[in-house]
Write a structure and sequence with these properties.
The complex is a heterodimer.
Chain A lengths: L1 H13 L12 E3 L3 E3 L2 E3 L10 E3 L7 H6 L9 H11 L10 H5 L14 E3 L4 E3 L1 H12 L10 H12 L15 H11 L10 H5 L6 E2 L2 E2 L10 E3 L4 E3 L1 H10 L11 H13 L9 E3 L1
Parallel strand pairs in A: 9-11
Antiparallel strand pairs in A: 1-2, 3-4, 5-6, 7-8, 9-10
Helix pairs in contact in A: 3-6, 7-10
Chain B lengths: L1 H14 L31 H9 L31 H4 L2 H14 L36 H12 L5
Helix pairs in contact in B: 2-5, 4-5
Classes of the chains: A alpha+beta, B mainly alpha.
Subcellular location (chain A): Periplasm
Protein name (chain A): SoxAX cytochrome complex subunit A
Cofactor (chain A): heme c; heme
Protein backbone atom coordinates (compact mmCIF):
# COMPACT_ATOMS: atom_id res chain seq x y z
CA UNK A 1 0.00 0.00 0.00
CA UNK A 2 2.73 2.42 0.99
CA UNK A 3 4.64 1.70 -2.20
CA UNK A 4 1.52 2.14 -4.25
CA UNK A 5 0.93 5.54 -2.72
CA UNK A 6 4.50 6.55 -3.41
CA UNK A 7 4.23 5.48 -7.06
CA UNK A 8 0.98 7.40 -7.36
CA UNK A 9 2.59 10.52 -5.94
CA UNK A 10 5.41 10.31 -8.45
CA UNK A 11 2.89 10.03 -11.27
CA UNK A 12 1.01 13.05 -10.01
CA UNK A 13 4.17 15.08 -9.85
CA UNK A 14 5.27 14.03 -13.31
CA UNK A 15 1.81 14.83 -14.60
CA UNK A 16 1.86 18.42 -13.45
CA UNK A 17 4.65 20.02 -15.47
CA UNK A 18 2.71 23.21 -16.18
CA UNK A 19 2.87 24.30 -12.56
CA UNK A 20 5.20 27.09 -11.69
CA UNK A 21 6.69 24.91 -9.00
CA UNK A 22 8.62 26.15 -6.02
CA UNK A 23 12.37 26.07 -6.62
CA UNK A 24 14.78 23.46 -5.29
CA UNK A 25 17.02 25.33 -2.89
CA UNK A 26 18.38 25.17 0.64
CA UNK A 27 18.15 28.05 3.07
CA UNK A 28 21.38 28.38 4.98
CA UNK A 29 21.57 31.45 7.15
CA UNK A 30 24.89 33.33 7.29
CA UNK A 31 26.62 30.25 5.93
CA UNK A 32 25.94 28.28 9.11
CA UNK A 33 22.32 27.74 10.19
CA UNK A 34 20.21 25.54 7.94
CA UNK A 35 16.51 26.37 8.08
CA UNK A 36 13.83 23.79 7.23
CA UNK A 37 11.83 25.13 4.27
CA UNK A 38 10.21 21.82 3.23
CA UNK A 39 9.03 19.00 5.43
CA UNK A 40 6.29 16.40 5.87
CA UNK A 41 2.93 18.00 6.46
CA UNK A 42 1.95 18.21 10.15
CA UNK A 43 -1.45 16.86 11.29
CA UNK A 44 -3.22 20.23 10.78
CA UNK A 45 -2.52 20.26 7.04
CA UNK A 46 -1.86 16.59 6.24
CA UNK A 47 -5.25 16.33 4.51
CA UNK A 48 -4.27 19.14 2.18
CA UNK A 49 -0.56 18.62 1.56
CA UNK A 50 2.03 15.87 1.47
CA UNK A 51 4.69 18.42 2.20
CA UNK A 52 4.61 21.89 3.68
CA UNK A 53 6.74 24.40 1.80
CA UNK A 54 7.94 27.77 3.01
CA UNK A 55 7.02 30.90 1.05
CA UNK A 56 10.78 31.42 0.64
CA UNK A 57 10.87 28.67 -2.02
CA UNK A 58 8.25 30.50 -4.09
CA UNK A 59 10.30 33.69 -4.37
CA UNK A 60 12.84 34.67 -7.02
CA UNK A 61 16.60 34.06 -6.78
CA UNK A 62 17.50 37.57 -5.69
CA UNK A 63 14.79 37.78 -3.06
CA UNK A 64 15.81 34.42 -1.62
CA UNK A 65 19.45 35.42 -1.53
CA UNK A 66 18.76 38.61 0.41
CA UNK A 67 17.44 36.53 3.25
CA UNK A 68 20.49 34.28 3.44
CA UNK A 69 22.82 36.84 4.95
CA UNK A 70 22.02 39.24 7.78
CA UNK A 71 24.02 42.00 6.10
CA UNK A 72 21.81 41.79 3.03
CA UNK A 73 18.50 41.31 4.84
CA UNK A 74 16.87 44.76 5.17
CA UNK A 75 14.70 43.41 8.00
CA UNK A 76 17.71 43.13 10.28
CA UNK A 77 17.93 46.93 10.71
CA UNK A 78 14.63 46.74 12.52
CA UNK A 79 15.86 43.88 14.66
CA UNK A 80 18.69 46.16 15.79
CA UNK A 81 16.23 48.92 16.63
CA UNK A 82 14.21 46.45 18.68
CA UNK A 83 17.36 45.34 20.49
CA UNK A 84 17.76 48.91 21.77
CA UNK A 85 14.15 48.96 22.80
CA UNK A 86 14.60 45.58 24.55
CA UNK A 87 17.25 47.10 26.79
CA UNK A 88 15.53 50.43 27.46
CA UNK A 89 13.47 50.97 30.61
CA UNK A 90 10.05 52.44 29.94
CA UNK A 91 6.89 53.00 31.96
CA UNK A 92 6.16 53.71 35.62
CA UNK A 93 7.75 50.48 36.85
CA UNK A 94 11.08 51.68 35.42
CA UNK A 95 11.82 48.35 33.85
CA UNK A 96 13.06 47.15 30.47
CA UNK A 97 12.27 43.81 28.83
CA UNK A 98 15.84 42.77 29.68
CA UNK A 99 15.26 43.42 33.38
CA UNK A 100 12.81 40.52 33.50
CA UNK A 101 14.01 38.31 30.66
CA UNK A 102 17.77 38.84 30.39
CA UNK A 103 19.41 39.05 26.98
CA UNK A 104 17.14 38.84 23.94
CA UNK A 105 18.81 35.54 22.98
CA UNK A 106 17.29 34.07 26.14
CA UNK A 107 13.96 34.24 24.31
CA UNK A 108 14.98 31.59 21.78
CA UNK A 109 12.17 29.06 21.62
CA UNK A 110 9.36 31.52 22.34
CA UNK A 111 8.38 32.47 18.77
CA UNK A 112 7.86 28.87 17.57
CA UNK A 113 5.10 28.14 20.12
CA UNK A 114 2.97 31.27 19.62
CA UNK A 115 0.00 31.82 19.46
CA UNK A 116 -0.37 29.96 22.72
CA UNK A 117 -3.01 29.32 25.35
CA UNK A 118 -2.61 31.49 28.46
CA UNK A 119 -4.14 29.79 31.48
CA UNK A 120 -4.41 32.83 33.71
CA UNK A 121 -6.10 34.93 31.07
CA UNK A 122 -8.16 32.01 29.77
CA UNK A 123 -7.43 32.88 26.15
CA UNK A 124 -5.15 32.16 23.23
CA UNK A 125 -2.54 34.88 22.95
CA UNK A 126 -0.49 36.01 20.01
CA UNK A 127 3.07 37.17 20.63
CA UNK A 128 1.86 40.76 20.21
CA UNK A 129 -0.76 40.28 22.93
CA UNK A 130 1.86 38.86 25.26
CA UNK A 131 4.24 41.74 24.55
CA UNK A 132 1.53 44.27 25.34
CA UNK A 133 0.60 42.40 28.49
CA UNK A 134 4.21 42.79 29.67
CA UNK A 135 4.19 46.45 28.75
CA UNK A 136 0.97 47.25 30.54
CA UNK A 137 1.21 45.05 33.61
CA UNK A 138 4.91 44.61 34.28
CA UNK A 139 6.38 47.81 32.87
CA UNK A 140 3.30 49.97 33.47
CA UNK A 141 3.86 51.45 30.04
CA UNK A 142 1.48 52.25 27.20
CA UNK A 143 0.61 49.29 24.98
CA UNK A 144 1.96 49.43 21.45
CA UNK A 145 -0.27 49.62 18.40
CA UNK A 146 -0.87 46.06 17.20
CA UNK A 147 0.89 46.40 13.87
CA UNK A 148 2.80 49.61 14.68
CA UNK A 149 6.55 49.88 14.06
CA UNK A 150 7.69 49.27 17.63
CA UNK A 151 5.55 46.13 17.88
CA UNK A 152 6.54 44.69 14.51
CA UNK A 153 10.21 45.40 15.23
CA UNK A 154 9.98 43.63 18.59
CA UNK A 155 8.36 40.56 17.03
CA UNK A 156 11.20 40.60 14.47
CA UNK A 157 13.76 40.52 17.28
CA UNK A 158 11.96 37.64 19.00
CA UNK A 159 11.68 35.73 15.72
CA UNK A 160 15.32 36.35 14.84
CA UNK A 161 16.64 34.67 17.99
CA UNK A 162 14.56 31.57 17.16
CA UNK A 163 15.56 31.30 13.52
CA UNK A 164 15.90 27.73 12.40
CA UNK A 165 13.82 26.31 15.23
CA UNK A 166 10.74 24.45 13.95
CA UNK A 167 7.33 26.03 14.36
CA UNK A 168 5.56 24.05 17.06
CA UNK A 169 2.19 25.60 17.87
CA UNK A 170 -0.34 23.55 19.86
CA UNK A 171 -3.84 23.06 18.47
CA UNK A 172 -5.19 20.79 21.18
CA UNK A 173 -6.25 21.11 24.81
CA UNK A 174 -7.70 24.46 25.81
CA UNK A 175 -6.58 26.02 22.50
CA UNK A 176 -8.72 23.69 20.44
CA UNK A 177 -11.88 25.79 20.41
CA UNK A 178 -9.99 28.81 19.08
CA UNK A 179 -8.20 26.58 16.58
CA UNK A 180 -11.56 25.34 15.26
CA UNK A 181 -12.70 28.95 14.83
CA UNK A 182 -9.58 29.68 12.86
CA UNK A 183 -10.14 26.67 10.66
CA UNK A 184 -13.69 27.79 9.96
CA UNK A 185 -12.39 31.21 8.87
CA UNK A 186 -9.73 29.62 6.67
CA UNK A 187 -12.35 27.82 4.62
CA UNK A 188 -14.93 30.64 4.49
CA UNK A 189 -15.33 32.25 1.08
CA UNK A 190 -15.33 35.91 1.98
CA UNK A 191 -16.20 39.01 0.01
CA UNK A 192 -17.66 39.77 -3.37
CA UNK A 193 -15.05 37.54 -5.00
CA UNK A 194 -16.06 34.69 -2.67
CA UNK A 195 -12.55 33.47 -2.04
CA UNK A 196 -11.30 31.54 0.98
CA UNK A 197 -7.67 31.31 2.07
CA UNK A 198 -7.86 27.69 0.92
CA UNK A 199 -8.85 28.66 -2.64
CA UNK A 200 -5.53 30.37 -3.16
CA UNK A 201 -3.10 28.75 -0.74
CA UNK A 202 -4.36 25.16 -0.64
CA UNK A 203 -5.95 24.52 -4.04
CA UNK A 204 -3.69 26.69 -6.17
CA UNK A 205 -0.28 27.10 -4.56
CA UNK A 206 2.48 26.89 -7.13
CA UNK A 207 0.31 28.60 -9.74
CA UNK A 208 0.39 32.18 -10.88
CA UNK A 209 -2.50 34.49 -10.06
CA UNK A 210 -1.75 37.37 -12.39
CA UNK A 211 1.83 38.36 -11.49
CA UNK A 212 1.89 36.60 -8.12
CA UNK A 213 3.28 33.12 -7.53
CA UNK A 214 0.98 31.59 -4.93
CA UNK A 215 2.63 29.94 -1.96
CA UNK A 216 1.00 27.77 0.70
CA UNK A 217 0.56 30.91 2.81
CA UNK A 218 2.56 29.87 5.87
CA UNK A 219 3.57 32.29 8.60
CA UNK A 220 6.93 30.87 9.66
CA UNK A 221 8.61 33.82 7.92
CA UNK A 222 6.90 36.61 9.83
CA UNK A 223 7.39 39.40 10.26
CA UNK A 224 8.20 39.75 6.59
CA UNK A 225 10.27 42.50 4.99
CA UNK A 226 8.43 43.15 1.72
CA UNK A 227 10.28 44.71 -1.18
CA UNK A 228 6.92 46.03 -2.32
CA UNK A 229 6.40 48.37 0.64
CA UNK A 230 9.98 48.35 2.01
CA UNK A 231 8.99 47.69 5.59
CA UNK A 232 8.34 44.88 8.01
CA UNK A 233 4.85 43.41 7.75
CA UNK A 234 3.03 41.68 10.60
CA UNK A 235 1.03 38.48 10.20
CA UNK A 236 -2.26 40.28 10.79
CA UNK A 237 -1.30 42.93 8.25
CA UNK A 238 -0.90 40.19 5.64
CA UNK A 239 -4.21 38.58 6.62
CA UNK A 240 -5.89 41.95 6.33
CA UNK A 241 -4.49 42.44 2.84
CA UNK A 242 -5.49 38.97 1.68
CA UNK A 243 -9.07 39.39 2.96
CA UNK A 244 -9.31 42.89 1.47
CA UNK A 245 -8.28 41.45 -1.88
CA UNK A 246 -11.41 39.30 -1.91
CA UNK A 247 -13.44 42.55 -1.94
CA UNK A 248 -14.52 41.84 1.63
CA UNK A 249 -14.94 43.87 4.77
CA UNK A 250 -11.76 42.74 6.45
CA UNK A 251 -11.09 42.06 10.16
CA UNK A 252 -8.93 44.29 12.32
CA UNK A 253 -5.35 43.36 13.27
CA UNK A 254 -5.49 42.00 16.81
CA UNK A 255 -9.16 40.98 16.49
CA UNK A 256 -10.21 37.63 18.00
CA UNK A 257 -10.89 36.42 14.44
CA UNK A 258 -7.34 37.08 13.28
CA UNK A 259 -5.83 35.61 16.45
CA UNK A 260 -7.82 32.42 15.85
CA UNK A 261 -6.83 32.40 12.18
CA UNK A 262 -3.18 32.94 13.12
CA UNK A 263 -3.31 29.99 15.53
CA UNK A 264 -4.78 27.75 12.84
CA UNK A 265 -2.48 28.89 10.04
CA UNK A 266 0.55 28.50 12.32
CA UNK A 267 -0.31 24.85 13.01
CA UNK A 268 -0.64 24.15 9.28
CA UNK A 269 3.04 25.05 8.99
CA UNK A 270 4.33 23.26 12.11
CA UNK A 271 7.75 21.82 11.35
CA UNK A 272 8.88 24.67 9.08
CA UNK A 273 11.76 26.65 10.51
CA UNK A 274 11.28 30.14 11.94
CA UNK A 275 12.62 32.63 9.36
CA UNK A 276 11.58 36.06 10.64
CA UNK A 277 12.45 38.60 9.56
CA UNK A 278 12.18 36.97 6.15
CA UNK A 279 12.30 38.73 2.78
CA UNK A 280 9.45 38.51 0.28
CA UNK A 281 8.30 40.63 -2.65
CA UNK B 1 -34.84 55.80 -3.55
CA UNK B 2 -34.49 58.92 -5.61
CA UNK B 3 -30.74 58.66 -5.33
CA UNK B 4 -30.74 55.09 -6.59
CA UNK B 5 -32.77 56.12 -9.60
CA UNK B 6 -30.30 58.88 -10.37
CA UNK B 7 -27.42 56.45 -10.12
CA UNK B 8 -29.11 54.13 -12.59
CA UNK B 9 -29.71 57.00 -14.98
CA UNK B 10 -26.11 58.11 -14.68
CA UNK B 11 -24.88 54.58 -15.34
CA UNK B 12 -27.20 54.19 -18.29
CA UNK B 13 -25.83 57.40 -19.71
CA UNK B 14 -22.20 56.51 -19.09
CA UNK B 15 -22.33 52.98 -20.46
CA UNK B 16 -24.57 53.87 -23.37
CA UNK B 17 -27.32 51.45 -22.40
CA UNK B 18 -30.43 52.41 -24.36
CA UNK B 19 -32.84 52.17 -21.44
CA UNK B 20 -32.53 50.89 -17.89
CA UNK B 21 -35.90 49.21 -18.24
CA UNK B 22 -34.69 46.59 -20.74
CA UNK B 23 -31.85 45.42 -18.52
CA UNK B 24 -32.29 42.19 -16.58
CA UNK B 25 -31.41 42.82 -12.95
CA UNK B 26 -28.83 40.45 -11.39
CA UNK B 27 -31.52 38.84 -9.25
CA UNK B 28 -33.71 38.01 -12.26
CA UNK B 29 -31.26 36.23 -14.52
CA UNK B 30 -32.62 32.84 -15.62
CA UNK B 31 -30.14 29.99 -15.66
CA UNK B 32 -30.85 26.69 -17.39
CA UNK B 33 -28.11 24.12 -16.81
CA UNK B 34 -25.73 26.97 -16.07
CA UNK B 35 -26.51 28.79 -19.31
CA UNK B 36 -28.38 32.06 -19.89
CA UNK B 37 -30.26 32.17 -23.18
CA UNK B 38 -31.50 35.76 -23.22
CA UNK B 39 -29.25 38.76 -23.61
CA UNK B 40 -29.09 40.78 -20.39
CA UNK B 41 -29.71 44.04 -22.24
CA UNK B 42 -31.03 43.32 -25.70
CA UNK B 43 -28.12 45.37 -27.03
CA UNK B 44 -25.56 43.32 -29.02
CA UNK B 45 -22.22 42.98 -27.26
CA UNK B 46 -19.19 44.93 -28.45
CA UNK B 47 -16.37 42.36 -28.74
CA UNK B 48 -13.63 45.01 -28.85
CA UNK B 49 -14.79 46.46 -25.56
CA UNK B 50 -15.16 42.94 -24.20
CA UNK B 51 -11.53 42.26 -25.01
CA UNK B 52 -10.57 45.34 -23.04
CA UNK B 53 -12.62 44.23 -20.03
CA UNK B 54 -11.10 40.74 -20.04
CA UNK B 55 -7.57 42.17 -19.88
CA UNK B 56 -8.15 45.17 -17.61
CA UNK B 57 -7.08 44.82 -13.98
CA UNK B 58 -9.79 47.22 -12.85
CA UNK B 59 -12.61 45.55 -14.83
CA UNK B 60 -12.94 41.81 -15.54
CA UNK B 61 -9.31 41.04 -14.75
CA UNK B 62 -9.99 37.62 -16.25
CA UNK B 63 -6.33 37.15 -17.17
CA UNK B 64 -5.56 37.17 -13.45
CA UNK B 65 -6.70 33.54 -13.59
CA UNK B 66 -6.83 32.63 -17.29
CA UNK B 67 -4.14 32.54 -19.93
CA UNK B 68 -5.29 33.94 -23.22
CA UNK B 69 -3.27 33.48 -26.40
CA UNK B 70 -5.05 36.43 -28.00
CA UNK B 71 -3.60 38.82 -25.40
CA UNK B 72 0.14 38.54 -25.65
CA UNK B 73 0.14 42.37 -25.44
CA UNK B 74 -0.83 42.03 -21.79
CA UNK B 75 1.82 40.67 -19.38
CA UNK B 76 1.22 38.17 -16.57
CA UNK B 77 -1.59 35.75 -17.26
CA UNK B 78 -2.68 33.56 -14.37
CA UNK B 79 -2.88 29.78 -14.28
CA UNK B 80 -5.89 29.20 -12.05
CA UNK B 81 -8.57 28.42 -14.66
CA UNK B 82 -8.41 26.83 -18.14
CA UNK B 83 -6.92 28.77 -21.06
CA UNK B 84 -9.50 30.94 -22.78
CA UNK B 85 -8.22 29.94 -26.21
CA UNK B 86 -11.00 28.16 -28.04
CA UNK B 87 -13.65 29.03 -25.42
CA UNK B 88 -15.96 30.18 -28.22
CA UNK B 89 -15.69 26.74 -29.76
CA UNK B 90 -16.23 24.75 -26.58
CA UNK B 91 -19.20 26.78 -25.33
CA UNK B 92 -22.30 28.32 -26.87
CA UNK B 93 -23.07 32.00 -26.43
CA UNK B 94 -25.73 31.15 -23.83
CA UNK B 95 -23.29 29.00 -21.90
CA UNK B 96 -20.64 31.71 -21.98
CA UNK B 97 -23.19 34.24 -20.71
CA UNK B 98 -24.00 31.89 -17.85
CA UNK B 99 -20.33 31.31 -17.02
CA UNK B 100 -19.52 35.02 -16.93
CA UNK B 101 -22.69 36.02 -15.08
CA UNK B 102 -22.33 33.33 -12.42
CA UNK B 103 -19.82 30.57 -13.07
CA UNK B 104 -20.98 28.65 -10.00
CA UNK B 105 -24.20 27.75 -11.83
CA UNK B 106 -22.14 25.90 -14.45
CA UNK B 107 -19.27 24.73 -12.21
CA UNK B 108 -20.47 24.18 -8.64
CA UNK B 109 -18.03 25.56 -6.01
CA UNK B 110 -15.89 27.10 -8.75
CA UNK B 111 -13.24 29.53 -7.65
CA UNK B 112 -14.32 31.84 -10.47
CA UNK B 113 -16.08 34.95 -9.13
CA UNK B 114 -19.70 35.63 -10.07
CA UNK B 115 -19.60 38.77 -12.18
CA UNK B 116 -23.31 39.54 -12.32
CA UNK B 117 -24.60 38.84 -8.84
CA UNK B 118 -25.32 41.17 -5.92
CA UNK B 119 -26.39 39.07 -2.97
CA UNK B 120 -25.43 36.08 -0.87
CA UNK B 121 -21.93 37.33 -0.05
CA UNK B 122 -20.21 36.93 3.32
CA UNK B 123 -18.87 40.28 4.58
CA UNK B 124 -19.05 42.03 1.21
CA UNK B 125 -16.72 45.00 1.03
CA UNK B 126 -16.59 48.34 -0.71
CA UNK B 127 -14.39 47.35 -3.66
CA UNK B 128 -10.81 46.79 -2.43
CA UNK B 129 -10.90 49.22 0.50
CA UNK B 130 -11.39 46.55 3.17
CA UNK B 131 -14.38 48.56 4.42
CA UNK B 132 -17.98 47.31 4.50
CA UNK B 133 -20.07 47.60 1.35
CA UNK B 134 -22.31 50.69 1.13
CA UNK B 135 -25.00 51.84 -1.34
CA UNK B 136 -22.43 52.05 -4.12
CA UNK B 137 -22.35 48.23 -4.12
CA UNK B 138 -23.15 46.67 -7.50
CA UNK B 139 -22.24 43.64 -9.59
CA UNK B 140 -18.58 43.21 -10.63
CA UNK B 141 -19.61 43.92 -14.23
CA UNK B 142 -22.60 45.87 -15.55
CA UNK B 143 -25.08 44.00 -17.76
CA UNK B 144 -23.74 45.47 -20.98
CA UNK B 145 -20.17 44.73 -19.94
CA UNK B 146 -21.16 41.07 -19.49
CA UNK B 147 -22.63 41.12 -23.01
CA UNK B 148 -19.43 42.68 -24.37
CA UNK B 149 -17.28 40.01 -22.70
CA UNK B 150 -19.54 37.26 -24.05
CA UNK B 151 -19.31 38.75 -27.55
CA UNK B 152 -15.52 38.70 -27.24
CA UNK B 153 -15.37 35.12 -25.94
CA UNK B 154 -17.43 33.85 -28.88
CA UNK B 155 -14.64 35.10 -31.18
CA UNK B 156 -12.07 32.82 -29.48
CA UNK B 157 -12.40 29.94 -31.92
CA UNK B 158 -9.01 28.40 -32.69
CA UNK B 159 -8.00 25.91 -30.03
Amino acid sequence: MKRLTAAFTVCLMAGAPTWADPVEDTLVLNGETEIVTRTDAPPASADAFDEVISGWLFRGDETREMQMDDFDNPGMIFVEQAEDSWNTAEGDAGKSCADCHGASEEMAGVRPVYPKWNDEAGEVRSLEMQINDCRENRMEAEPWKYTGNEMVNMTALLASVSRGMPMNVASDGPAQETWEQGKELYYTRFGQLELACANCHEDNYGRMIRADHLSQGHINGFPVYRLKNTKLNAVHGRFKGCVRDTRAETFAPGSPEFVALELYVATRGNGLGVEGPSVRN
Amino acid sequence: MERKFLVILALAASTGVASAAETTEPGNVEFVDGAVEASLTGVPGDAANGRKIVGDKGLGNCVACHQNGDMTDIPWHGEIGPMLDGAGERWSEAELRGIVANAKMMFPDSMMPSFYKVDGFIRPGKAFTGKAADDSFGPLLEAQQVEDVVAYLTTLKDD
